Amino acid sequence: MSELTLTLIKLGFLALLWMFVLAVLSVIRSDLFGAKVDAQRFRLSNPSSASTGGNPGGAVPKRMRTVESSGASTDVTDAKSA
Question: Which of 9, 17, 53, 79 is 20 to 30 Å apart from 42, CA to CA?
């Protein structure tokens, strides 16, 4: 092979490597910071969450109870309400 062909192959692999690195950085960035979601727009666009009755009235839960674990059942109270 000519020297020009090898140089072009090396540059192609280098470009492919950088595209991979940038894709990985993009995924890490989105995992760390996430996408901001407007709560009002989410409620309007997701009617199935209202029909399932998972969180009536949009209230924020104040307590959490661990039902299954290796230890005893414990209650965790929100620090703001304490």
Answer: 79
